Amino acid sequence: MYGKNFVRDLLSKQEVVITDDNRQQVEWVVRGKYPISVGFSRTLLIPFEKQGLGKNIVELEGQMEKVTTGSGVLWMMEGAPHPNAAKVYINWLLSQKTQLLLSQNIGHNSSRTDVPPVEAAVNPAKKYRNSGMEENSEFDAGLLPVIKEALKK
Q: How far, in Å, are 40, 103, 129, 134 from residue 106 at the CA level?
């Protein structure tokens, strides 16, 4: 949203801490260890909110929202030991009852039309950017070297 120079400055001029544990990242913000997070998982905040924690965490308003189509994908490996069991599981997971419970508990909309949305899917007042779109791939590919360089110390 802000370009390569912004990313370079953010990563090289701040005391950046990196973790590959998304739950740990959320806990750090909830506990106030780090006040700002990039790539924060709102879904992982839900258990803390149910305990009365993290109620003051807000998303920074930006000019653009990132949209992704890469989460919630099901895969079934070819030659799986119990393919019929996997099919039964997938059918259960995608059932209306299970999708309703999942959407209510993790705060994400289901693709099923018979499951009511829990949040507005699209806000017409915002601009959206899908990193999976071809027109964004060149910029995204050019950003990785900037990130690697900025994080060298």
A: 14, 6, 23, 30
149 burial type by CB count under 10 A (0-12 exposed, 13-18 middle, 19+ buried) = exposed
> Mind listing the pLDDT tens digit for each residue in 28-85?
999 999 988 888 887 888 889 989 998 888 877 766 666 665 556 777 788 888 889 9
Three-class SS state of 66: strand
DSSP three-state, residue 94: coil
E strand intervals along the chain:
64-67, 127-130
What is d(CA 98, CA 29) in angstroms, rounded to the nearest whole number?
Answer: 30
- β-strands 64-67, 127-130 pairing: parallel
Q: What whole-number distance in Å separates Cα of residue 147 and Cα of residue 153?
A: 12
Give residue 8's identity as a one-letter amino acid code: R
Q: 115 vs 118, which has greater pLDDT?
A: 115
